[in-house]
Design a protein that fits this description.
mainly alpha; 6 helices; 52% helix; flat
Length: 108
């Protein structure tokens, strides 16, 4: 019969494949995590966050972020934070990283 030959994907309900949009709380947690990561790398001045963060909020509000997208962006933030604990100096003005020997103190 035709019903017996239907693929499992064809018989899946539309709700099962519908996107799962992030909640307000998940998006707020993303904004907080992003802000911490940007401060950590020196991209955001914590004394003047009013300029950058509202722009980023507007950017993210132009689309309905899905849970997976929020998780992806938070993963990026986590990797930024981890990179800040690696034995590398912050990027120079040209964006390059300079290895810092772990057995030497700051000479500057």
């Amino acid at each position: 019969s035709p019903a017996a030959s239907a693929s499992p994907a064809a018989s899946a309900s539309p709700a099962a494949s519908a996107p799962h949009f992030a909640s307000h709380e998940q998006i707020e947690a993303l904004h907080a995590h992003l802000e911490r990561a940007l401060v950590r790398i020196g991209f955001l001045d914590p004394r003047h966050p009013k300029k950058l963060m509202p722009r980023l909020r507007r950017l993210f509000s132009r689309t309905r972020l899905e849970v997976e997208e929020v998780e992806l962006l938070r993963g990026v933030c986590t990797q930024i934070e981890k990179a800040c604990t690696n034995p590398y100096a912050p990027p120079g003005r040209d964006g390059s990283y300079s290895p810092v020997p772990s057995n030497e103190g700051d000479s500057e």
